[in-house]
Amino acid sequence: MERPQEEMSFLDHLEVLRWHVIRSIVVVITVALLAFFFKSYIFKYVILPHTMGNFPTYKFFCEIGRFLGSETDFCNDRLPLVIQNRTMTGQFSATLWISFWTGIVVGFPYLMYEMWRFISPGLYEKERKMARGFISVTSVLFFVGVLFGYYVIAPLSIHFFATYSVVGGEQMVKNEIDIASYIDMLRSSVISCGLIFELPVIIYFLAKLGIVTPEFMRKYRKHAIIVTLIVAAIITPPDVASQVIVSIPILILYEASIFVAKYVQKRQKIKLN
């Protein structure tokens, strides 16, 4: 049985942290190995479908365009790009990286579990009870963000750059994209959204530490909107529609975070009284 965290020395903390990290690495590697074994399925049904015209997001925007009486590039059977490999180890490296990130995404709940096991002994019993849903909440928010990135941000970004041409609608310059570049865009879109959706959890702990208050967040709401638009411009293609689509959930998360900070503040006042 481990000693209470308040009685442990700094080296004891490092030892405990080391084993949490080791267990987390083992889980990530295990999932990564399984992903490597099923690489053909993952690439065929998860990684490469964004290059096909029948991807659900493209079909959705195609139907919207038809409903409005106009044909769009979203109605094409296939995007005007070719995924290619230009290095001897390119496909093998791509498989390794996809396996690794699959291990991170799939193993995320366990990573949060190990994190919680490390920090929870330093909390009071009441605080542990209040934050009992930490693993579930962080995991749900992360996976919702991952799905948003996969079905909204990634296809919009990939479609924009695949159909963009320096000479207007003519494809005089072919888009022959290296597989590493394609995977980088897909990965950054998915992982960044997963992390952005953790905003309410981050605000919860900042509010617990007294760094952030609901009054502070309301006061700087306009600044937050500007930052949100900047973030949306960075992670999406440079068109207004995509930026608005991305900005809406981020703003909703910001408003939800205000309620989280308000809840924490209310609980702390009750505790003081």
TrEMBL record:
<keyword id="KW-0472">Membrane</keyword>
<keyword id="KW-0811">Translocation</keyword>
<dbReference type="Pfam" id="PF00902">
    <property type="entry name" value="TatC"/>
</dbReference>
<comment type="similarity">
    <text>Belongs to the TatC family.</text>
</comment>
<feature type="transmembrane region" description="Helical">
    <location>
        <begin position="134"/>
        <end position="153"/>
    </location>
</feature>
<keyword id="KW-1133">Transmembrane helix</keyword>
<feature type="transmembrane region" description="Helical">
    <location>
        <begin position="244"/>
        <end position="264"/>
    </location>
</feature>
<keyword id="KW-0812">Transmembrane</keyword>
<comment type="subunit">
    <text>Forms a complex with TatA.</text>
</comment>
<keyword id="KW-0653">Protein transport</keyword>
<keyword id="KW-0813">Transport</keyword>
<protein>
    <recommendedName>
        <fullName>Sec-independent protein translocase protein TatC</fullName>
    </recommendedName>
</protein>
<dbReference type="InterPro" id="IPR002033">
    <property type="entry name" value="TatC"/>
</dbReference>
<feature type="transmembrane region" description="Helical">
    <location>
        <begin position="223"/>
        <end position="238"/>
    </location>
</feature>
<feature type="transmembrane region" description="Helical">
    <location>
        <begin position="94"/>
        <end position="113"/>
    </location>
</feature>
<feature type="transmembrane region" description="Helical">
    <location>
        <begin position="21"/>
        <end position="42"/>
    </location>
</feature>
<comment type="function">
    <text>Part of the twin-arginine translocation (Tat) system that transports large folded proteins containing a characteristic twin-arginine motif in their signal peptide across membranes.</text>
</comment>
<keyword id="KW-1003">Cell membrane</keyword>
<feature type="transmembrane region" description="Helical">
    <location>
        <begin position="189"/>
        <end position="211"/>
    </location>
</feature>
